[in-house]
Structure formats: C-alpha cells, structure tokens
Amino acid sequence: MHHGPIHAAELEKMQRRLWHRVVYLVPTSPAPSEDGMLFSWGCTFTKTQNRKDLGYVNGNLHKPFLAALTSKVNELAEYFQAERVMAMGYSMGGFGALQLGSFAPESYDAVVSVAGYGMGTLEPTERSGAPQPKGRNVFQWFLDNSISHLADVPVVLGIHAPSDTMSSFADAAQLSLRGWKLMKHVELRAFPFLLRF
C-alpha cells in the first residue's frame, strides 16, 4: 500500500459499496533479509541500490516472494470459493499488482494498477533521478519479460494522471501500450489529477 497499510474500516466501506462478499489480502513488503536485502513488493535490492529511492531501477524481481504470495492468494481463493480474483493497488501497490499479474497471470481475473509503475523508467535523469540509459534498459526488460505475461489476464486496467509527479505517467502509458499490442483488454484511463494521501 502507498504510505502504509490500509485500515479495516476502509476495507469494510469498500465491501458495503460493492454489495458483495469481498475478501481482501493486504500484503506488506517483507522485512529485510538476513543478507541485508530490502524489498518493495517483489522487487529486492540492497541499501546501496536503493539510494535516492532507486531500488526499482537497480534491483531485481524476487521470484520466491512472488511465488509465496501467489500460493497464498490461490490458497485463499480456493478456501473462500472465490468467483473472481483481482490484484489491485495504488502507487507501490499498483507496482505490486503488475508484478503479481505478470508472475502468475493464470491466478487473476483482473489486474488494476492505480498510479502504478514498473521496473526502470523512461523518464530523464533530471526528472526521475534514475541513471540513463540504465533506467530505460531496465524498463524495456520489464516490458519484454514481465508485462508481456499480462496477455493471459482477462482484464488489465491502468488508471493514472498525466500530472503525477511521483509515478511516471509516461511509463504507465508505455506499459499500457505494450498491453494493447499484446491483447485487446488493456486500458489506461487518464485523469487530470489523482489525489495523494
């Protein structure tokens, strides 16, 4: 979740508005590992790699974490006899939703990323702080090796604001564009602004 966990009262409010029984699995990033690796969802990096919050450029996807979380999602979906399973999140949570949907597309009926982002960035160094061309190369790798798997998810929705200064709208647009080339069920909705809490 962006800036900390979501509160139970907010989840209950969403369930009332949906008029359906909804089960939420709200994961947090793992604690640092014994060898000093830090996590942002399924992205892992060292403290040095995350200098200036650039772990998403300098780090790597951590497949054991994504596998463990996917296993838990599948277990709970079976236990609750879920009709639909969605991965959705805001900002860093949107990053996580894209990671989960890309890692195990067969487990999800929909992936929703609100103000999310991917590994790497197309943004220039002056705007993102990410060294270029490394940021672009990592982003291209993420498109080719992760986002391409979203073709097997029935519905993928990205919601983003062009004025967002924290998560790149240009990156989100490219993630969606790749999705459109692979499948017809990806959509990016652009809003003039998104509120940050």
What does this structure look like?
The structure is a single chain. The protein has a single domain (25-190), classed as Rossmann fold, CATH 3.40.50. 35% of the residues are buried. The radius of gyration is 16 Å and the shape is globular. The model has no long low-confidence stretch (mean pLDDT 85). It is built from 7 helices and 7 strands; from the N terminus they run αββαβαβαβααβαβ. The longest helix has 17 residues, at 63-79. Strand 6, helix 7 (169-182) and strand 7 form a beta-alpha-beta unit. It has 197 residues and is an alpha/beta fold. Helices cover 38% and strands 15% of the residues. Strands 4-5-6-7 form a 4-stranded parallel sheet, with helices on one face. Strands 1-2-3 form a 3-stranded antiparallel sheet.
Shape: globular
**Pattern of helices and strands:** HEEHEHEHEHHEHE
**Cα distance, first to last residue?**
11 Å
Mean pLDDT: 85
Please indicate the count of domains.
1
Which structural class fits the helix and strand makeup? Answer: alpha/beta
CATH class: Alpha Beta
Biggest sheet statistics: 4 strands, parallel
**Beta-strand proportion:** 5-15%
Total number of beta strands: 7
Count every helix, treating DSSP H or I runs of 4 or more residues as helices.
Answer: 7
Query: What is the share of helical residues?
Result: 25-40%
Would you give the CATH topology?
Rossmann fold
The strand order across the widest sheet is 4-5-6-7
Q: Segments where pLDDT lies below 50 for 5+ residues?
A: none
CATH architecture descriptor name? 3-Layer(aba) Sandwich
| Rg for CA atoms | 16 Å
